[in-house]
Amino acid sequence: xxxxxxxxxxxxxxxxxxxxxxxxxxxxxxxxxxxxxxxxxxxxxxxxxxxxxxxxxxxxxxxxxxxxxxxxxxxxxxxxxxxxxxxxxxxxxxxxxxxxxxxxxxxxxxxxxxxxxxxxxxxxxxxxxxxxxxxxxxxxxxxxxxxxxxxxxxxxxxxxxxxxxxxxxxxxxxxxxxxxxxxxxxxxxxxxxxxxxxxxxxxxxxxxxxxxxxxxxxxxxxxxxxxxxxxxxxxxxxxxxxxxxxxxxxxxxxxxxxxxxxxxxxxxxxxxxxxxxxxxxxxxxxxxxxxxxxxxxxxxxxxxxxxxxxxxxxxxxxxxxxxxxxxxxxxxxxxxxxxxxxxxxxxxxxxxxxxxxxxxxxxxxxxxxxxxxxxxxxxxxxxxxxxxxxxxxxxxxxxxxxxxxxxxxxxxxxxxxxxxxxxxxxxxxxxxxxxxxxxxxxxxx
Length: 445
Fold this sequence. Notes:
Layout (H helix, E strand, L loop, with lengths): L2 H7 L6 H8 L2 H27 L3 H17 L3 H16 L2 H29 L6 H12 L9 E5 L5 H12 L3 E5 L15 E5 L9 H10 L5 E6 L1 H8 L9 E4 L4 H12 L6 E5 L3 H12 L3 E5 L2 H10 L4 E5 L7 H10 L8 E5 L4 H8 L5 E4 L4 H35 L6 E2 L2 E2 L6 H14 L1
Parallel strand pairs: 1-2, 1-3, 3-4, 4-5, 6-7, 6-8, 8-9, 9-10
Antiparallel strand pairs: 11-12
Helix pairs in contact: 1-6, 2-3, 3-4, 3-6, 3-12, 4-5, 5-6, 12-16, 13-14
């Protein structure tokens, strides 16, 4: 185990092995712990204010989120404290809540600063890094739907090599837009292009607006950027833009077939299933983004209102929705989605931190597609999402098969003797099937 793990294990009340298991690995634990450290002071302030305002609903929501976050990070005693306060707050006993919260805040603060210290001393993760990562993920997912295979090939002049590369990309299933760095702007391609390919040559890019804009668009791998050129040409570009903007460097002479295969591999992430994760807890958002982001396109949203706005702009394949949130709660968001014809069939899985029978009945009364307990670890949650998409795919295939059977049944009802100008009258979609049958019969004879 790493030095980070050894030091994290020394924090009082921590089960580091459980944390690694639930977070899906030590690397994820570091990332989630960094987010926890970065948001801890804010949570303390929010809970203190809610207590001062005697806002039991807000207290319930905050400790509910902290209960799940603490369990995820292996702080089991802290999680139990939060759960106790949540139960009391739900019962409406303000006096008992006022009695319990101060000691919980002391324990929570001590844990936050202990985690902050370990993160600062024994990991390479800046406590603000996770927030930046979430912003990068959101920016990446601003790619317009259907633009996953759009590429922009930037090159000066119409050389044979550029034409050959264009042809190979087209044969690989990509759409290609050729632009000249001397005349064209790339700004309009920012949200409808997954990959930019910069073919270097005699043209000097130093100080050009195109290169500056390209660096901004692709910074942090928001979009893929591939460089093709000689060592000197590539070196010139690297002296002007950050390496973090670049997804791949290919030296001339270029094997176009090999290059396109690598572009397909790099761009694969944009064709993944798209999931909106909606939760006001940044810690849990970081966890889900880490776990699911390896296999799916994940966009994180911190409120119900933000989710509804995002859904209007771009339809996801699945929404994972926190049941309890300030402002618009999970059930309220689901109700809005069900009321709109364009969104009512989007699958919604509730995220909940409470697993008692009464709570489960209440959650399922809103008829979501499913629910997931926040106390589940990374492996269990990923298995649940994988199973959901596998079942959805199977259901779609069964529906398509049933539609095909219905088409054939319709054909069987057409009177054999019905003719027009000496030919049988058949629906257009049946012609190919019929011709194939005649060909097979002819071969048999």
